[in-house]
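Fold it.
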Amino acid sequence: METSAQLGKFIVLDGIEGCGKGTQTKLLSDFLIKKGYNVITQKHPEYGKPIGDLIDAWLHKKYEFNVETQAMLYFADFIKDKQLLENDIKNGKIIVSDRYFSATIVYQHINGLSIEKLLKLAELFELRKPDLCIYIRISTETSFKRKLEQKGIKLMDRHEADKKFLSALYENYEKMAKENIFCDWAIVDGEQPIENVSKQITEILSQKLNI
């Protein structure tokens, strides 16, 4: 097996609300650690930190921001860690991220910003592209049901509770993944049991990244 020092990779798990990104991020990280790799996990937005908490406040309608401000808040949430990410990859670590700029493109495009403008933003800041973004596909019905069961309607944020927005999310993620916008994408069936989804992901990584 190749050593972890030879295998610096950046992997993103993405998809609509309730697709299981957090669960699969942990399962994938545990799987890679057991194989002997040096793994770093990330989550965006990073709640509990100043930028993430401001995003959370906006999501729960404590503030209102125009679309440009929204985009820059999300962008700032991961650009703040740009140098750390670059250093970890150079040092051969495998980064597994629960969302990234891929999600910002999807969400802010729905809100009115063009994909072209968002990609130019990434180019301007020389944003690191993932080696692979894995789209965990679930239906909008499954998304709403899962978040409702998890939180209850009163605690769901403005996106989770908006079925029309969820439908737009689904369509935009489909476009991103099928057209490999921003980076290379792979699609897994998130409607399957958790263990099956995890197996799909590890098989894809073996095929595409030789991990």
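The chain has a mean pLDDT of 93.
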